[in-house]
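Here is the promised in-class demo. Please do not try to memorize the tokens; focus on the logic of going from shape to residues.
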């Protein structure tokens, strides 16, 4: 800050309104899962009292988040944007609410039954909006409008609504209509399109080398459809698009945010940055400069600056120097006020019990619909095993990214509990663990370390932020062939990635059951195992029995 003129209190409060900070959904400081990014309560209360305009939440149960949102509103003393990345239903992040199949599952259904898929996407949005409102959230950071036309995409992948513009656009727009009918805000992301990248902007700065014509044909249509559906906000992408701006990433680019989004596409709602703590930004820009550049480019809200105090000071200095105009900041604050006016009034007192009432009927309908769509695409899926070893207990080999970050696999999860109840021994193989990999190209599994008996493969593979890959580098085709050659493959279930399933399914011999499940949560596990076939003895006696055994 220049020593010549300190900012007036009204300007500082205005600047605070344009920041969205990260907080834990849990109530106590020691419960924070990510202390590096989540402010302790004393600091959080101080910045809210100073006027910070929004909070993004992660962690905690649905019931606890309901109490947390009420607490944050009290501390703020003003209308507050409260948001979360709940792209797969609120239960994806907050236990007790509804956890739904990944959006790409409906993109696959759209190929066969477009009207049904659109109707379900709108239900998906309504469910997400209803659950969010029950918790006290008023801003859903979805839908993902990226077209996942690159199967190796490590960060978007199954989070997208489609791998072509038609399905992605129709389903994302339906989600927007459903969510916003519940009086919460939706957010189309990551503008102008993060689907055709093979790197993760959490870790590095991706490059999208496409022409303007290609962007107009593939990347932009889903955003245009979301805007036409009235989406309240758009989130930027941290990636380079030389055809639009050869100097700065989209988040910090005036040609992208003002020229393309505001002027060409006519979007008049809130523009929010993706998190500025991501390496795509922090590896190149300081916290203060990144915040100023984002506002200069045309963003209204700065999400998760790497240093909130530095961002506030830099924005104030930019106003003082004339680099940013106060009128521009006032216009952004007005867009924020208009967005908040569209939200339902928060309940006078939180109802934690109401916050933890999942819509199991919709969740099950989505699981079954998308399993059936996958079965039609792969008619051999769900075959009954004829191998005489298939009914014998053996090894339940489960592939995970990390056992420490697998909320879909509690001890009671069907993928674990059903085989174990029938005498199978579970072995967890983490993607970063070398213990069961032999290093031999055509025989990659170290079978001598597994022990004897048939092997049931359950592969939890999908794109996830911070992974750096979508699991495609792992030699599962060779591993499957190895088990077949050894006469030890009892069955295969792939949870998550349709691309891995499409690679493995043609390799399954007749008589070996295989199933693809878009969802990874316990409900989806139960239905997938039901369809795996009675030959393994892992199905439930009642179809649609859910995830309790």
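The designed amino acids, position by position:
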């Amino acid at each position: 800050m220049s020593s010549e003129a300190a900012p007036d209190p009204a300007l500082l409060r205005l600047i605070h309104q344009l920041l969205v900070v990260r907080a834990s959904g849990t109530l106590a400081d020691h419960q924070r899962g990510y202390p590096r990014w989540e402010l302790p309560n004393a600091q959080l209360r101080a910045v809210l009292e100073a006027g910070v305009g929004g909070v993004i939440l992660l962690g905690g149960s649905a019931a606890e988040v309901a109490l947390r949102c009420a607490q944050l509103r009290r501390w703020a003393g003003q209308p507050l944007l409260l948001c979360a990345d709940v792209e797969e239903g609120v239960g994806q992040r907050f236990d007790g609410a509804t956890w739904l199949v990944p959006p790409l599952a409906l993109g696959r259904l759209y190929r066969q039954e477009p009207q049904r898929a659109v109707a379900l996407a709108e239900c998906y949005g309504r469910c997400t909006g209803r659950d969010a409102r029950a918790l006290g959230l008023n801003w859903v950071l979805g839908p993902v409008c990226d077209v996942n036309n690159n199967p190796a995409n490590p960060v978007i992948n199954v989070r997208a609504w489609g791998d072509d513009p038609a399905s992605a656009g129709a389903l994302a727009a339906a989600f927007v209509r459903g969510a916003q009918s519940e009086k919460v805000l939706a957010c189309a992301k990551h503008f102008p399109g993060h689907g055709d990248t093979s790197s993760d902007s959490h870790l590095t700065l991706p490059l999208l080398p496409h022409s303007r014509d290609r962007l107009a044909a593939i990347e932009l249509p889903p955003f245009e459809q979301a805007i036409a559906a009235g989406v309240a906000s758009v989130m930027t992408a941290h990636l380079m698009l030389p055809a639009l701006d050869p100097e700065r990433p989209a988040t910090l680019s005036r040609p992208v945010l003002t020229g393309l989004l505001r002027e060409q596409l006519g979007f008049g709602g809130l523009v929010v940055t993706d998190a500025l703590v991501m390496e795509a930004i922090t590896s190149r820009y300081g916290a203060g400069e990144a915040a100023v550049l984002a506002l200069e480019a045309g963003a209204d809200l700065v999400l998760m600056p790497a240093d909130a105090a530095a961002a506030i000071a830099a924005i104030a200095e930019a106003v003082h120097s004339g680099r940013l105009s106060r009128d521009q900041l006032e216009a952004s604050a007005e867009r924020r006020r208009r967005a908040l006016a569209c939200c339902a009034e928060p309940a006078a007192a939180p109802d934690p019990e109401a916050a933890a009432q999942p819509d199991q009927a919709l969740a099950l309908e989505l699981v079954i619909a998308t399993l059936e769509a996958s079965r039609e695409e792969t008619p051999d899926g769900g075959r009954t095993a004829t191998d005489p070893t298939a009914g014998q207990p053996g090894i339940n080999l489960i592939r995970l990214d990390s056992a420490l970050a697998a909320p879909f696999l509690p001890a009671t999860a069907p993928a674990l509990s059903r085989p174990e109840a029938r005498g199978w021994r579970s072995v967890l193989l983490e993607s970063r663990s070398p213990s069961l990999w032999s290093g031999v190209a055509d025989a990659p599994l170290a079978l001598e370390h597994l022990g004897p008996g048939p092997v049931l493969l359950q592969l939890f593979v999908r794109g996830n932020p911070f992974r750096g890959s979508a699991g495609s580098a792992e030699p599962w085709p060779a591993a499957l062939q190895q088990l077949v050659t050894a006469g030890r493959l009892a069955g295969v279930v792939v949870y998550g990635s349709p691309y891995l399933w499409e690679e493995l399914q043609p390799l399954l011999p007749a008589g070996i059951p295989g199933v693809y499940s878009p969802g990874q949560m316990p409900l989806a596990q139960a239905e997938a195992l039901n369809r795996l076939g009675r030959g393994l003895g892992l199905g439930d006696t009642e179809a649609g029995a859910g995830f309790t055994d």
